[in-house]
Write a structure and sequence with these properties.
The complex is a heterodimer of chains A (356) and B (318). Helices cover 23% and strands 36% of the residues of chain A. Chain A has 356 residues and is of the alpha+beta class. Chain A has a six-stranded mixed sheet with strand order 6-7-8-3-9-10, sandwiched between helices. Chain B is 76% helix and 0% strand. Chain B is flat and about 105 Å long. The two termini of chain B are 33 Å apart. The chains are: A alpha+beta (356), B mainly alpha (318). Chains A and B meet through strand 6 and helix 2 of A and helix 9 and helix 10 of B.
């Protein structure tokens, strides 16, 4: 178990700065997800934690001790890679035992701990097999067992679910989360999948271009996204964003006009989540262009004076057919406004559908 | 009914056309290889075996069909045991010191240093392989001959303060040919192992580091374990190549002094084409080189799982 702290950490590869200046604290036993699109520096951050990359500047602290120069093998970090990285020439049991060999663990104890770790992730019956004889899900479990067998101070997961099929991903998600809750090991998960991050992590660190956009609970990121980027990245289907100019309590988007309250600048980006929009007899006019049944919900794509708008309706069957002209509305408390130039959230600014 | 019959006829025609095309494709793709293997391997082997049962000599006349050449190899050739022992030492030492171990070291070190310098050093080690054998042999002779002016002697006298020149060909002829062949042979392993090392997924190294392995443990558990197959391949291939190696020895020492570097291939050459001119006896001796060659080649086929590689793919590509 360990607390982690990034103090003004930077990472450069040659002339290219991948992480300019990172500050982050992770508490003991916490499950944190680094979320962001590919190339945002989340894997670089993870590799710095593992000791595979060394930071170019700043201080990295494990339990308040500086580890900048500490080699990977001396950090007591367990890591699961996207490709699982199992040693192909070793059996499952040898793979799991591998980290223990370097801790000078007595042979009898190795056997016992391998058994325990295998039971923990339910691969006890696979111990004599080789990685090539395992399915993706089984390889993933073995990789987890190998990462956990040495009782690591820190568990790192690098996109661990992205190579699994959809059903298995859901099952492993639950399993990893409950395993982490049981062991209370400080865990950092790297993912580009916001559902993975929101469902598994206690806190999410949303990253873009090497910078932290927002740190918060999944709910914070969803309800109070700090920037347009976070609003766009968290939430599925993605949020509707429209840019308009503000004058006298009115925000104008070409032909459409909405009321705005609070202290906004001259131009804003308005964010409306599809699940917060609903069809009504009056409001903003909309023509249905497309509908996508998603099982319990239906996603409509509508042409409106604001542009194309996605509306999510909870229903098994479509209530609106393609080509229908209707209206949609939203509740004022569910609206978000971002400064058009800085792209940051403007707190306490709300949007309202004008009553004619 | 007419339409059905017509369709059946069209189908048969299509099938026939496909068969014909398969045959032409086979001829186009495999023809050249079959021709080359036949003319340069199968035919010479048959001719060799045929000659070995005759008394063909310098007069190019066959007067009898006989097995006495084989009798002679087993009973009467006094030089043969020495030649076999020398060949075993030469092949073993060159193979173990240079063609595998040193090649492996070159591959490991040139992949561990920055890419540009790695490529530079590999290119340097490839130079002997790229130079014509005569040029290479002359360079060796020039470097080690017994006079004061040879490269080695200039070093020994001017740098290490030796009083007089030494003649390595007289002193250590076997090691001279082992080094001369080894310097070329090492680059083969170096090239194959370099690409093998490059193909090891980087994540495995990262995983091993995080699991607590140090540099030596990583080299042993990850790199060397991945090189087991290429190393076996190199081992067999280079054994074959060394058993028949010939031209550098002939050019540098000529098999001497006093037969001390006369390995099997040189011995065959001397018996068959030397002053004695015993073509038939040379052919019988050569037969004993063909046998291990074929066995090792079959072994290579087995370990490289060539059979599986040649099977029809299990997935259909549409």
């Amino acid at each position: 178990m360990a607390t982690i702290e990034f103090k003004r950490i930077s990472k450069k590869f040659g002339d290219e700065t991948v992480i300019p200046d990172m500050n982050l604290k992770i508490s003991d036993g916490e499950f944190v997800a680094l979320l962001g699109p590919s190339g945002c520096g989340k894997s670089t951050t993870l590799f710095m934690l593992a000791g595979i990359y060394l930071p170019s500047g700043g201080e990295l602290l494990f339990d308040d001790a500086r580890v900048n120069e500490v080699e990977a093998r001396d950090r007591n970090v367990g890591i699961v890679f996207q490709s699982y990285a199992l040693y192909p020439h070793m059996t499952v049991s040898k793979n799991i035992a591998f980290p223990l060999r370097f801790q000078k663990t007595p042979e009898s104890e190795i056997g016992r701990r391998v058994k325990e770790a295998a039971e923990l992730v339910q691969v006890s019956e696979l111990l004599d097999r080789r990685p090539e004889q395992l399915s993706g899900g089984q390889q993933q479990r073995v990789a987890l067992a190998r990462a956990l067998v040495k009782n690591p101070a820190l568990l790192l997961l690098d996109e661990p679910l992205s190579n699994l099929d959809a059903t298995l991903r859901l099952a492993m998600r639950t399993e990893i989360k409950s395993l982490q809750e049981r062991l209370r090991v400080t865990t950092v998960l790297v993912t580009h999948d916001q559902v993975e991050a929101t469902t598994m992590a206690d806190r999410i660190v949303c990253m873009c271009d090497g910078k932290i956009e927002q740190i918060g609970t999944p709910e914070d990121l969803y309800r109070r996204p700090a920037s347009k980027f976070v609003a766009g990245f968290v939430g599925s289907p993605p949020i509707n964003l429209f840019e308009g100019t503000v004058a006298n309590g009115i925000v104008e988007f070409g032909d459409a006009r909405l009321e705005i309250t609070g202290d906004a600048g001259s131009s804003v980006a308005v964010g409306l989540r599809p699940e917060h929009l609903y069809f009504a007899d009056s409001g903003i006019p909309a023509t249905i262009v497309q509908h996508e049944p998603m099982g319990r919900e239906i996603l409509y794509v509508c042409e409106t004076p604001l542009g194309l708008v996605r509306i999510l309706e909870t229903a098994a069957a479509a209530s609106q057919s393609i080509g229908t002209s209707t209206h949609f509305r939203f509740e004022t408390e569910n609206t978000l406004a971002f400064d058009a130039s800085s792209e940051k959230l403007i707190p306490r600014v709300r949007i309202r559908v004008p009553e004619k | 009914m007419g339409a059905v019959r017509e369709e059946a006829t069209v189908r048969t025609q299509v099938r026939k056309a496909m068969k014909a095309r398969e045959r032409t494709n086979m001829a186009i793709f495999l023809g050249p290889t079959i021709l080359i293997v036949s003319f340069f391997f199968v035919v010479p082997v048959i001719v060799d075996i045929a000659i070995s049962f005759t008394d063909l000599g310098r007069e190019l006349r066959i007067t009898e069909i006989t097995t006495k050449n084989y009798e002679r190899t087993f009973t009467r050739d006094r030089q043969l045991p020495g030649v076999i022992a020398r060949t075993a030492f030469y092949v073993g030492a060159t193979l173990l010191i240079f063609n595998t171990t040193f090649g492996l070291l070159l591959a490991l070190t040139t992949t561990a240093i920055p890419r540009t310098s790695g490529t530079f050093f590999r290119a340097v080690w490839l130079l002997p392989r790229m130079s014509p054998s005569v040029v290479y042999a002359i360079l060796w002779t020039w470097s080690i001959h017994g006079g004061d002016t040879s490269l080695v002697n200039q070093f020994l006298i001017n740098v290490f303060g030796f009083e007089e020149a030494i003649d390595l060909i007289q002193l250590e002829p076997m090691w001279v040919i082992i080094f001369a062949n080894g310097f070329i042979g090492a680059s083969f392993a170096m090239i194959i192992l370099t690409s093998a090392i490059r193909s090891i997924p980087e994540h495995l190294y990262h995983a091993a580091r995080c699991d607590g392995a140090g540099s030596l443990a990583v080299t042993w558990h990850i790199t060397l374990m991945h090189l087991r197959w290429p190393l076996t391949y190199i081992f067999i291939w280079q054994t074959l190549s060394l058993l028949t190696s010939f031209e550098y020895i002939l050019l540098i020492t000529g098999g001497g002094p006093f037969r001390s570097t006369t390995v099997f291939a040189i011995f065959i050459f001397q018996r068959a084409f030397g002053s004695a001119g015993q073509y038939a006896y040379g052919a019988a001796l050569a037969f004993f080189l063909i046998v291990p060659g074929v066995i090792l080649a079959l072994l290579l086929w087995r370990i490289s799982k060539m059979g599986t590689l040649l099977q029809r793919p299990r997935i259909e590509v549409q």
